[in-house]
């Protein structure tokens, strides 16, 4: 792509982020008392839903990192989101984050899902307040003490409120019960990456290296060119399911983790695997219109042909990452096609933010809300921030601050 192409792309990404996505979330998801709302329907109507830790932590991460990278002051909404995580989602008795609470912060589901604790670490580390970093470290200590498998490595899916390993814990009813999953381990790795960047202590380094090795040696299936998704305690794959979105996301996050760890051998392996992943996903998971399908089975058979907003966001970043590593133009072109699809089909120019789910005929699914227990700004805000930084490196005059740090 020419510098002119990348400048135009960066300009459109920045405009969507600053004029559409962030204003919608800042204006539509807090009540007059500064408490996080449960959600919004696709047309903007208020959704009375439990306030999940997933939503709360991801809102905090999105606001805090957008302010930092865009060179803006951390305003009222960042502070309200931080207070929500520290005061409403946090269990004052046993520590850790509840899975979900009501509008007052009273627990609805009080178990300690490892996935949620990871996003708590990830969000809190992004804040400059000392109390936020201290809270992130407490979460690390809790899951490392109670949720880690000390014999076979990795982290169990969840614990009870008082931190006993919870058999059968799972993220949703759509998933089979599994002791360990790629999705949870991916976001634990992501959280530890940023924790190690902020607090480079030996135990965090050791755990981060262990997670990188699990992705390279246990979770990746070279014969199928994909990651398994659900595993027994001793790392036996449990289903033939694959997720193209999680694969492409894992590729670039694995590279990021290895970069922060600073281990040349692991970084070389991670970079090679990221290109392999992008090649496999491009061959089997990409539709003719440039979008990425929802999910499939080993061998590439699609089982979910809906278009998820987060999958398209991860595709854009993952393909571009593979281009930066390999220099192959086809990956840059695939990333740009992802953005074109997003801009045409997911960006909601009538009601704001992004449409989260499209059916196989690319029609918005009204049953999937604009904001809700899982529908949050994290994936598309992160993708747009990533692309602004990366496109600026490719074309230094692209529409982003030249001195903005990469998140």
From TrEMBL:
Gene3D superfamilies: 1.50.10.10. SUPFAM superfamilies: Six-hairpin glycosidases (SSF48208). InterPro entries: 6-hairpin_glycosidase_sf (IPR008928), 6hp_glycosidase-like_sf (IPR012341), AGE/CE (IPR010819). Keywords: Isomerase. The keyword Isomerase applies. The keyword Cell wall biogenesis/degradation does not apply. Coiled coil: none annotated. PANTHER family: N-ACYLGLUCOSAMINE-2-EPIMERASE. Belongs to the N-acylglucosamine 2-epimerase family. This is AGE family epimerase/isomerase. The lineage of its organism: Bacteria, Pseudomonadati, Pseudomonadota, Betaproteobacteria, Burkholderiales.
């Amino acid at each position: 792509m020419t510098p002119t192409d990348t400048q135009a792309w960066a300009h459109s990404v920045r405009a969507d982020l600053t004029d559409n996505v962030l204003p919608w979330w800042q204006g539509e998801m807090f009540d007059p008392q500064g408490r996080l709302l449960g959600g919004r329907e696709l047309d903007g109507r208020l959704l009375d839903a439990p306030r999940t830790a997933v939503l709360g932590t991801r809102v905090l991460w999105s606001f805090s990192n957008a302010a930092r990278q865009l060179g803006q002051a951390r305003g009222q909404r960042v502070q309200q989101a931080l207070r929500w995580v520290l005061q409403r989602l946090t269990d004052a008795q046993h520590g850790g984050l509840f899975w979900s609470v009501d509008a007052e912060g009273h627990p609805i589901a009080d178990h300690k899902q490892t996935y949620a604790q990871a996003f708590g670490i990830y969000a809190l580390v992004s804040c400059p307040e000392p109390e936020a970093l201290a809270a992130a470290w407490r979460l690390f200590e809790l899951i490392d003490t109670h949720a880690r498998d000390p014999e076979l490595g990795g982290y169990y899916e969840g614990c009870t409120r008082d931190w006993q390993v919870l058999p059968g814990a799972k993220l949703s009813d759509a998933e089979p019960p599994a002791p360990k999953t790629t999705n949870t381990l991916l976001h634990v790795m992501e959280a530890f990456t940023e924790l190690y960047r902020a607090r480079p202590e030996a135990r965090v380094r050791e755990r981060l290296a262990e997670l990188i090795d699990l992705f390279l040696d246990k979770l990746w299936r070279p014969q199928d060119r994909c990651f398994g998704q659900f595993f027994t305690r001793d790392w036996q794959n449990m289903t033939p399911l694959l997720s193209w979105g999680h694969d492409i996301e894992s590729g670039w996050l694995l590279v990021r983790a290895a970069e922060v760890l600073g281990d040349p051998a692991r970084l070389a392996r991670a970079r090679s695997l990221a290109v392999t992943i992008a090649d496999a996903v491009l061959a089997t998971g990409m539709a003719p219109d440039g979008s990425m399908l929802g999910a499939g089975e080993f061998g590439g058979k699609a089982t979910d042909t809906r278009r998820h907003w987060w999958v398209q966001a991860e595709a854009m970043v993952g393909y571009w990452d593979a281009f930066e590593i390999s220099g192959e133009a086809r990956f840059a072109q695939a990333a740009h096609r992802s953005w074109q699809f997003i801009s045409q089909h997911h960006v909601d120019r009538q009601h704001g933010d992004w449409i989260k789910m499209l059916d196989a005929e690319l029609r918005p699914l009204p049953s999937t809300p604009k904001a809700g227990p899982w529908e949050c700004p994290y994936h598309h805000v992160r993708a747009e921030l990533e692309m602004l930084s990366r496109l600026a490196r490719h074309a230094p005059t692209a529409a982003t601050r030249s001195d903005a740090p990469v998140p």
